[in-house]
Amino acid sequence: MSFFARFAQNRGALAGLIILLVIIAMAILAPLLFPESPWRMVQRPFLPPFSQDGFPLGTDTMGRNVAAGLMHGAWVSLLIGLVSTSVALLIGVPLGAIAGYYGGLIDDILMRFTEFFQTIPNFALAIVLVAIMQPSVTSIVLAIALVSWPPVARLVRAEFMSLRNREYVEAARLVGQTNRTIILRQILPNTLSPIIVLASLMVATAILLESSLSFLGLGDPNVMSWGYMIGAARTVIRQAWWLSFFPGVAILLTVLALNLVGEGLDDALNPKLSRER
Amino acid sequence: MLYARLIVMRLCKAVIVLFLIVIFNFFLIQMAPGDPAAILAGEAGATDQEFLDQLRERFGLDQPLYVQLWRYVSGIAMLDFGYSYRLGAPVFDLIMARLPATLLLTGTAFVLSLVLGIVAGSMAAARVKKPSGSLIMALALLFYATPLFWVALMSVVVFSVYLGWLPAYGLYTVGAGHTGFALVLDVARHLILPATTLALFFMAIYTRMTRTSMLDAAQQDYVKTARAKGLKPGIIQRRHILRNALLPIITLAGLQAGQMVGGAILTETVFAWPGIGRLMFEALQQRDYNLLLGIFFFSAALVIVFNIITDLVYRLADPRIKGGS
Q1: How far apart are CA B52 and CA B46, in angstroms?
Q2: Complex prediction ipTM
């Protein structure tokens, strides 16, 4: 069975993929459909949804177009989710690989370091980091990456420990390949499928973290994001529920879709394990 | 005493971790934008150089970095977390005043999510491959993916604004003057919405975990033996499978403590619950870095204490595990 056929067997994963594609399309089409800045005040404030053409989701407390904010926010959420996950992989994969491959004292030191980061409550740490570095896309990406790499390191370490004594690794050692080549060319490619599955779930968590940060007012002040929209509408929730409702649904659907896709990838990449669950 | 030694070891480790966090905090303060003395002077409304220097000297900001670090660390060892100039009180006192509300909220949410999660998870495990089992898992995934602060806001809209059943803000009705049992009842009513919204996310995690763990345990030999003996399926499910499946859930519960703190920050912000999470939000809004880092330290300490407790519970529940390792 082809990779996609195995993926599509999981109907939830297929639905997740479709939702995700719609959200990616939203992000790409945002500048075309709403070329104006989503921060611009374009109508009277508190316009209810479905009441006027051009403002399908109404306007917010300052008369800004909610639909435009939602589309532009898709881009920010996906970007921060992807970039922060990549940075987390760049930290976690090398640490886990070195710890798992060499073992011994290096492993001990690196794992104590990882444990330390895992003990610290990660949302609180992200808040402190963004607050001190001042809110910006860069500081948010860095903070999310810094709190989300430990599971990657642990996963990669476990994979390396189980693979480092396999025959093909011994063979590579016998022909005189350096440790670096063995790590990068022999073992790492064989650990990719669990890393990919974990990464897809991490993008979902990163999007949740980003929205929570910007909900608390720690978003980049120059970009419109879903969390900011909900946070800004928090105090007027009694008069205008829709201002918080639609961005929340957008976050929910994105995170749900990524989780479903992650499960589908798990099924497709590890066909033996997944069926009985 | 095995447990006594274990506790001592875990406490030593906890002290090391907390010490590292203190050093980490110190360097974060150095990174914070602006000269602390200038921030203080700005608050007091004066900006002349002499006054700035006075402030620097008073708070030791004119000393070399290692002296400042030493003062900071030894201060914290004596529970001196600095002073919140915005709120006009020592950071430690502020946190202590807010801690009980947070413990009440997270404790309730923890018990609620654990009980509901284990019940839902075992129901899903017993109904594996049936539509009702799949429905439970779909709901669990939905709760897992929903942003906590959004559920909180939407529950305010539905249960507080629209239906008018439950209070949306605060710990108790201000000005009602309730005492004794009436006060307990009033606080409980205020607790329902925050605790339930905070519990939903964790309930989702425990549901998934319980189901997986029970399906694993169902494959074990002792379950086959129990079946061969002719025990009723309900008894096997409860006595043989569930009891063993609970062990990994205790471990997981310990790991979730950090998440719980994060969730509390968001829920307390929405519901104006007067705990340390809400205090953190206030500190953020006023850029009160001293207070912010103090709360950060305390939240880490809370997580460590909780981890030690779950570790001990785990060892009590599973005598096969020896202390020390």
Answers
A1: 9
A2: 0.86
Q: Indicate the pTM of the whole model.
A: 0.88
∠ CA B213-B214-B216, nearest 5°, is 65
Distance CA A214, CA B151 (A): 16
Q: Which residues of B touch A248 (CB under 8 A)?
A: 146-147, 150, 153-154
Query: CB contacts < 8 Å between A and B, how many?
Result: 126
Q: Are B156 and B270 in contact (CB under 8 A)?
A: yes
Where do the H-state alpha helices sit in chain A?
Answer: 3-9, 11-33, 66-102, 104-119, 122-133, 137-148, 150-163, 167-174, 179-181, 192-215, 226-233, 242-269, 271-274
- Maximum alpha-carbon separation in chain B: 88
**B233-292: per-residue pLDDT in tens?**
888 887 788 888 888 888 778 778 888 888 999 999 999 999 999 999 988 888 788 888
In B, residues 283-302, which contact A (CB 8 Å cutoff)? 284-285, 287, 289, 292-293, 295-296, 299-300
Q: Do A119 and B304 touch (CB under 8 A)?
A: yes
C-alpha–C-alpha distance, residues A106 and A94, integer Å:
13
Q: For residues A114 and A120, give the distance between their C-alpha atoms in angstroms, rounded to a whole number.
A: 10
- In three-state secondary structure terms, B81 is coil
| Cα dihedral: B43, B48, B51, B53 (round 10) | 110
Contact B142 A211 (CB under 8 A): no
d(CA B176, CA A57): 40
